[in-house]
Design goal:
By secondary structure, the protein is of the alpha+beta class. It is 26% helix and 37% strand.
């Protein structure tokens, strides 16, 4: 990735499991041309990493504030991440839906 690219680690809080959040995030991320992953966490949150052009990453983070129909997002925890964060995705995939962590 170039110096203009961004990588963000996002924890989505609220009623975000059991509403199709992971499938929605995968679709939206791939539509924006982003790399990364999404997964449920045992604490009831959804974790995601988005990497790509800064404007596309920021658009995805903003979309996460709403999520899919049925989601009730109450908060996002957003932090910068390094290239090692996207290395968790499955080999050969641009964006992965990973098992619960």
């Amino acid at each position: 990735m170039s110096a203009a690219d961004s990588i963000r680690h996002v924890i989505i809080r609220g009623g975000v499991q059991g509403v199709g959040y992971r499938a929605w995030a995968e679709y939206e991320a791939l539509t924006l041309g982003l790399e990364g992953f999404v997964r449920n966490r045992r604490d009831g949150t959804v974790e995601a990493v988005f990497a790509g052009p800064t404007a596309a990453v920021e658009a995805m983070v903003e979309a996460c504030r709403r999520g899919p129909p049925g989601a009730r997002v109450t908060a996002l925890d957003i932090s910068e991440a390094g290239p090692e964060a996207i290395a968790r995705r499955r080999p050969g995939e641009l964006f992965s839906v990973l098992p619960t962590a």
